[in-house]
Design brief:
InterPro entries: Flavodoxin_fold, Flavoprotein-like_sf, FMN-dep_NADH:Q_OxRdtase_AzoR1, NADH:quinone_OxRdtase_FMN_depd. Homodimer. It is an enzyme of class 1 (oxidoreductase). It contains six helices and seven strands. It is of the alpha/beta class. The protein has a five-stranded parallel beta sheet with strand order 2-1-3-6-7, with helices on both faces. The chain has a two-stranded antiparallel ribbon with strand order 4-5. The chain is globular and about 60 Å long.
Amino acid sequence: MTRILYLQSSIFGDQGQSSQMAAAFIESYQARHPGTEVVVRDLTNDGVPHLDLERAGALRGFSDSLNDDQKAVLAFSDVLVEELRAADLVVLGLPMYNFGVPTQFKAWFDHIARAGVTFRYTANGAEGLVADRPVRVFASHGGFHVGQPHETSTTFVKAIFNFIGIQDVRFIHAEGLNISEDVKQEALEKARVETEAALAAL
């Protein structure tokens, strides 16, 4: 049985374009692979907190003695790490806000990037400790940004997954969604075709 981890990061929830693209992919995958389990981690509504000093202390090992709040932080991180490790396929719905990834997604990664757990330092540099698996990213942009110097989300997402050991990271973009209805529909149709190709390749 395949297990999908679905990371939803749109502030619009299920109504966000990236969420709808990701959901359509998952629905089609389940139709082709009956019995597929889907674990949903709603990064906006589940409230993955942003780092502060106490939280970073628990995750980064700043202190040998953890208080009760820090123990809870570590336990929450363990759950997120286990969700990732248990997934055969990761699906990420990723809008772009102000040329970057949603801060909710960054907060999720801050909780799973742990030395000795998901990566380790070696004499040759950092080494990822998470086994490779497919990550399919459904990215929505209001304008046309892919390939431009200011568009940092694609490079960032690939880099951080690579850092922990996951190399198979592929994007399906829908761009120009806020330009006009015609441009939007053309972009979504292009994304639909690319989604079908992505499904066939898995």
